[in-house]
Amino acid sequence: MNDRGGTFDGVHRRNLSKVLRLVHLEGAMSRARITALTGLNRSTVATLVAELVDLGLAVEQPPDPTNRVGRPSPVVAADPNVQALAVNPEVDAVTMAAVGLDGRISVRERIEVDHPPSPEETADLVAATRDRWVAGELRRARLVGVGLAVPGLVRASDGLVRWAPHLLWTDAPLRALVEQATGLPAAVGNDASFGAHAEHLFGAGRGVDDLVYLNGGASGIGGGLVVHGRPVGGTGGYAGEFGQNRPGIADPDDRRAEGGVLEDEVRRTRLLEVVGLTGADEPTLAAALAASAAPEVAAELARQRRILATALANAVNVLNPSLVVLGGFLATVAESDLADLEQAVGAQTVAAAFEEVSIRVAALGEDRLMIGAAEAALAALIADPGVDLISYRALPLD
């Protein structure tokens, strides 16, 4: 069946998508609530919900017993057994998770590596982990895709990783490799762009139309933009590379890399060094920094805050957002003295542009990239719930 604008089939598919997207983004809700939010009539909503249940994309639950006003309305939720794999390859680890259509992470694993994994090694690792999980934690799951959040430039048109310098990847066909290794459709994008999308939908940027997001990871600093409520990717999908900007550093003593870019100066490895760690996940590093009373730790955090403040001020002056969100180790840098960071940013921006700006840390924490990658993997299914996606079930349901 072809979707041709105003045909019955086209309208029906859009309405199916509307209902599925609603319970995906907002969580379980009554049929009556869906009717009110979509503007569709009650019988149409009942038909759409029944079809989503038949497709295995939604579940109906008994009405809330505390709701005694009017006729009880069944509660509709996204089926949690429909899941996507989310993957974030980094220089020191490959993090994977399974994220349900209900937005919950059912299993997560950080697999440490002793060298930057190649695209082929990444694809093999994804397949091996998938196989292990579906024999255990995901034995009831229906896997519908893989989302890969890559710290580098990813071409929007075909998911080709044009350049991921810290991973040593150039023109890597990661999507094709993962699809061949897993038999699942894959979506590839920049990790920070995925993080920005996740925070906009579910986190600190929920309901905010204009925001700037900066992500700090093992491979450096990336960013994402939301303007007028829409993600901005640029011509090729490479927008948001804040880490490659050259920061203005007022105090020469703050400079650590002559001629370096932002991610050379504001760097996770420098934070690991001052607390004596060779590697750590985000919560471990944040806890180590917070627990340390060493003057060199406080000094390094203050230095990175000063340089980060200039980068954020430049973004505010150019883009005029209402919100700046910081994720990864940048959230840790900010939280070390958020008031100091805000004051430093305000001192370097046009006063009118900074009047309504808030600076927040990512509300989704270390889950932001996983959720963002899963959103990319689930996007086709949510846009057209009747689409003939490749799906994978390891074992039959009991």
What attributes does this structure have?
398 residues, alpha/beta, Arc Repressor Mutant, subunit A, Nucleotidyltransferase, domain 5, 16 strands, 40% helix, 22% strand, WH_DNA-bd_sf, ATPase_NBD, kinase
If you had to describe this structure to a student in words, what would you say it looks like?
This is Sugar kinase. Residues 390-398 have low confidence and may be disordered. This protein has a five-stranded mixed β-sheet, with helices on both faces. Helix content is 40%, strand content 22%. The protein has helices at residues 8-26, 31-38, 42-54, 119-134, 174-182, 191-202, 262-265, 268-274, 282-291, 295-319, 329-335, 338-347, 351-354, 368-383, and strands at 29-30, 58-61, 75-78, 82-89, 93-100, 105-112, 142-150, 153-154, 161-164, 169-172, 186-190, 211-217, 220-227, 230-232, 323-328, 358-361. The two termini are 34 Å apart. It has 398 residues and is of the alpha/beta class. The radius of gyration is 22 Å and the shape is globular. The longest helix has 25 residues, at 295-319. It folds into three domains: 8-78, Arc Repressor Mutant, subunit A, CATH 1.10.10; 82-194 and 368-383, Nucleotidyltransferase, domain 5; 204-363, ATPase, nucleotide binding domain (Nucleotidyltransferase, domain 5, 2-Layer Sandwich), CATH 3.30.420.
